[in-house]
């Protein structure tokens, strides 16, 4: 979710971080154990730009009321309430009356933090279309943020400019090795996720992390006719 916003929206094969022997596994839908989305209606609901913004805000800065979410989404509170109810319908957010300061407010909190969509043998065309809609929406959001940084990069302090940026690399791996790498990356990022504000150092700022593992080879049926680069 938010973290790639790394409250992780993870796309691709499902990699689940392995907890130490003395710790129970992470709950489904939390960082380290993303929920695989299979309901096309749920994926389409989350692909809406306003709902994505609301979900991210609740995940990183919630709980929050519809009025507070409206400022982030650029909508009226009534429109935001509609989108919150839609997200709640699919178990993505839920009301958090315990955090109400006067008993009249209706704060909301995120319920599903981390998810992924993956293509497998049981994926239907309808599921595949919805997944592409969702991942396309996330890619557009991520690219918008990257473009904003590129446009204003000289305005950032030198120490941040040295730490930020995009790295490109190539790997030659087996599927099993790639899954292992995904798990290792999830575990490596974990201590820095700090979804609670109380966990963040005074000078910590929010940074988007996107890990995109893309095949540089054709599907098996075409491999006999194609030679890999290099």
Summary tags:
41% helix, Arc Repressor Mutant, subunit A, 230 residues, 7 helices, 5 strands, three-stranded parallel sheet, two-stranded antiparallel ribbon, 6% strand, disordered N terminus, mainly alpha
How would you portray this structure in words?
This protein has 230 residues and is mainly α. It has a single domain, classed as Winged helix-like DNA-binding domain superfamily/Winged helix DNA-binding domain (Arc Repressor Mutant, subunit A, Orthogonal Bundle). It has seven helices and five strands, in the order ββααααβββααα. The protein has a three-stranded parallel β-sheet with strand order 1-5-2, covered by helices on one side. It is globular and about 60 Å long.
List the helices and strands and how they pair.
Blueprint: E1 9-11, E2 35-36, H1 40-46, H2 49-61, H3 66-73, H4 77-89, E3 93-95, E4 108-110, E5 115-117, H5 125-152, H6 158-163, H7 175-193
Parallel strand pairs: 1-5, 2-5
Antiparallel strand pairs: 3-4
- How would you characterize the largest beta sheet? 3 strands, parallel
Shape verdict: globular
Proportion in helices: 40-55%
The overall pLDDT, averaged over residues, is: 86
Tally the helices: what do you get?
7
Strand order in the largest sheet: 1-5-2
N- and C-termini, Cα separation: 36 Å
Number of strands: 5
Q: Which structural category do the helix and sheet elements fall into?
A: mainly alpha
CATH topology: Arc Repressor Mutant, subunit A
Low-confidence stretches: 1-16
Q: Which architecture name does CATH use? A: Orthogonal Bundle
CATH superfamily: Winged helix-like DNA-binding domain superfamily/Winged helix DNA-binding domain
Please trace the helix and strand order, writing H or E for each element.
Answer: EEHHHHEEEHHH
Strand content: 5-15%
Task: Kindly provide the radius of gyration, computed on alpha-carbon positions and rounded to a whole number of angstroms.
Answer: 19 Å
How many individual domains? 1
Report the top-level CATH class.
Mainly Alpha
């Amino acid at each position: 979710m938010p973290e790639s916003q790394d409250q992780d929206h993870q796309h691709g094969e499902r990699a689940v971080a392995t907890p130490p022997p003395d710790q129970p596994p992470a709950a489904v839908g939390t960082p380290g154990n993303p929920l695989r989305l299979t309901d096309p209606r749920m994926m389409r609901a989350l692909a809406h730009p306003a709902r994505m913004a609301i979900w991210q805000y609740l995940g990183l800065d919630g709980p929050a009321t519809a009025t507070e979410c409206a400022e982030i989404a650029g909508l009226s509170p009534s429109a935001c309430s509609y989108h919150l109810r839609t997200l709640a319908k699919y178990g993505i957010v839920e009301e958090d009356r315990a955090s109400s300061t006067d008993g009249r407010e209706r704060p909301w909190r995120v319920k599903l933090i981390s998810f992924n969509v993956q293509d497998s043998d049981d994926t239907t065309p309808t599921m595949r279309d919805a997944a592409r809609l969702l991942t396309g929406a996330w890619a557009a959001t991520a690219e918008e943020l990257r473009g904003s940084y590129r446009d204003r990069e000289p305005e950032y302090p030198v120490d941040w400019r040295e730490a930020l940026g995009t790295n490109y690399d190539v790997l030659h791996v087996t599927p099993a090795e790639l899954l292992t790498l995904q798990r290792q990356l999830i575990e490596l990022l974990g201590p820095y996720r700090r979804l609670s504000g109380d966990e963040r150092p005074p000078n910590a700022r929010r940074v988007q992390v996107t890990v995109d593992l893309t095949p540089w080879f054709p599907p098996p049926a075409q491999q006999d006719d194609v030679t890999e680069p290099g």
